[in-house]
Design brief:
Mean pLDDT: 79
Strand content: 15-25%
Helix content: 40-55%
Structural class: alpha/beta
CATH topology of the largest domain: Rossmann fold
Number of strands: 11
CATH class of the largest domain: Alpha Beta
Low-confidence stretches: 1-10, 82-86, 90-127
CATH architecture of the largest domain: 3-Layer(aba) Sandwich
Shape: elongated
Distance between the termini: 54 Å
């Protein structure tokens, strides 16, 4: 391949990296966040002057299976092209590809690029599991991650309760307790009993996206949900796909493998499509507005890809935000370099989210635990 044309403007390496990764994801390849970070670093090392270097940089960092090579070659030719002026990047095609992917909702890819975020990889051996992308976990690492998640303290904030509790200097007199105490002292009220407003831990509601685009991350996040259900009392878990499935009972078993298997069996659309707006609407109508979401902390774990109407998503998220104490959205793709939430479903939901977090590694789940208790 020849070099970039002298007439072409200097390309944005970050934009190229994210755009090409998005192109691969739209073609059906699974590209974890950590692999896209390595691809960006490879481009920094080899540059963009030669197409052959770009090709091999991507092939070395973005492929893990030989059977994906044909799709990689096709996507490379679709994203880059050669003509008489040299090797170029199809920036217009990149934008069109991103729009089509957002409309169809078939990919599990990333959105387009911003210019402000700079993400550096750290290679501390002590922190490798905490920073490793969930999509790259082996079975042994998954078992170790389960132990880490079981030790996380998910302690939601508290709210005022209608039930009053005894207090030394309370805000209200407790005549019943005052009289009972006086009966033990020959009818003489030696002290005045008082009460104050009690506190109650807020309910935690986890809405987990189980669609095909979330499959590499859902296998870990469902274990995070299991640890939350087993470790605390007031936790509810639902699966979001083309329909809504309540998973709290299935995840109640202390055997994590048995619980995850039961949850996967009860979700008929696991790794299928997704209509997030409609599923959240069902939760609002059947569970949330009736009481489950009132004053609760609602956590949505999803990449934001939605095949449904974005107006439905916006309306249902607004409805949920009015009911819940806080709405936290956890998106595994947020850690991608240059990520911006412009996919249709994610963009419609953003105005109604209180906290927007990453969710691709154990360290990000620790941040989520802190946000739940904030």
């Amino acid at each position: 391949m020849t070099s970039l044309s002298a007439e072409a403007p200097a390309p944005d390496v970050e934009r190229i990296a994210v755009g090409f990764v998005h192109c691969l994801r739209s073609g059906g390849l699974t590209v974890p966040v950590s692999m896209s970070l390595r691809f960006r670093q490879a481009l920094d090392a080899v540059g963009l002057d030669r197409g052959d270097d770009v090709y091999w940089a991507g092939r070395a960092t973005l492929l893990t299976r030989p059977e994906d090579l044909a799709m990689y070659n096709a996507m490379f030719l679709a994203f880059f092209h050669r003509n008489g002026t040299g090797f170029k990047v199809r920036f217009e095609d990149e934008a069109e590809s991103a729009s089509l992917a957002a409309d169809d909702g078939d990919g599990d890819g990333n959105d387009t690029v911003g210019d402000d975020d700079v993400i550096a990889l750290r290679y501390s051996a002590a922190e490798v599991l905490g920073e490793k992308d969930f999509a790259e976990f082996t079975k042994a690492e998954l078992a170790e991650a389960q132990k880490v998640m079981a030790r996380m303290r998910l302690q939601p904030s508290q709210r005022s309760s209608r039930r009053r509790v005894p207090a030394v200097r309370g805000s209200r007199n407790d005549l019943r307790q005052t009289v009972r105490a006086a009966m033990r002292t020959a009818g003489e009220p030696l002290s005045l009993a008082t009460t104050t407003t009690g506190a109650r831990t807020r309910r935690l509601v986890l809405l987990l996206d189980v669609s095909g685009s979330m499959e590499p991350y859902a296998r870990v996040l469902i274990r995070f949900a299991h640890a939350a259900v087993v470790g605390r009392g007031r936790v509810e878990v639902f699966g979001l796909g083309t329909r809504l499935t309540r998973l709290t009972r299935q995840l109640g078993s202390h055997d994590v493998d048995e619980a995850v298997a039961a949850a996967a069996e009860s979700v008929v659309d696991w790794s299928g499509g997704t209509r997030l707006g409609e599923a959240i609407g069902i939760f609002n109508s059947e569970w949330g507005v009736r009481g489950m979401a009132r004053g609760s902390i609602v956590v949505i774990l999803s990449d934001g890809w939605d095949r449904g109407d974005p107006e439905v998503m916006s309306a249902e998220m607004e409805r949920l935000q009015r009911t819940a104490h806080s709405v936290i959205w956890v998106n595994p793709l947020k850690a991608s370099p240059g990520y911006e939430p412009i996919a249709r479903g994610m963009a419609a939901a953003m105005p109604h989210i209180d906290t927007f977090l990453e969710g691709h590694c154990l360290d990000s789940l620790s941040t989520l635990a802190d946000a739940i208790g904030a």
